[in-house]
Amino acid sequence: MNRRFLVLLAVTALMFVAHPAVSQTQDSALATIGFSFVADGKTMPAGQYELKLNSDRSAFTLSASPKGSGVFITTITRLASPEAAAGDAHIVFDKVGETCYMSEVWLPGEDGYLVYAAKGKHTHQIVKGQKKAK
After folding, report:
1. Are 72 and 63 in contact (CB under 8 A)?
2. DSSP state letter for 9
């Protein structure tokens, strides 16, 4: 009986240790954006960008990769993650006329973040990103 208890205790401890590794979130991603767009009121050229979520999850830094200038983007609200997109990094743009506005950011293991909400008629354009290698 004593040995059974110890085995059960060890298995339970392993579950708690292993669980955080499975549920870790990704704080940054890289994306190649093939068109100019507006982020936080600033027009950005096509290119490769890194999105990095700040530690309190209230804003992103968007910077041209590698080592380019950046824009600080405040989040408006968090968005519930649809199951199909939960594992993918991607950016949603609201296209109004010919202008694309960065509107949502989705990182693996995270809910989405609304950073801009277009008023009126618009379409969505989605750019897939990839996890940033550490």
Report:
1. no
2. H
SS3 99: strand
Query: Where along the chain do its domains lie?
Result: 25-131
Q: Is residue 30's pLDDT more than 70? A: yes
Q: CB neighbours of 132 closer than 8 A, spacing ≥ 6?
A: 26, 28, 29, 30, 50
pLDDT tens digits along 71-102: 999 999 988 765 545 567 899 999 999 999 99
CA distance linking residue 45 with residue 55, whole number of Å: 27
Our CA angle for 116, 90, 58, nearest 5°, is: 45
Q: Six-digit token pair at 99? A: 């202008």
Token pair of 106 as six digits: 């989705």
DSSP code, position 15: H
Read off the pTM: 0.73
**Residue 38: which of 76, 91, 107, 89 has the closest Cα?**
91
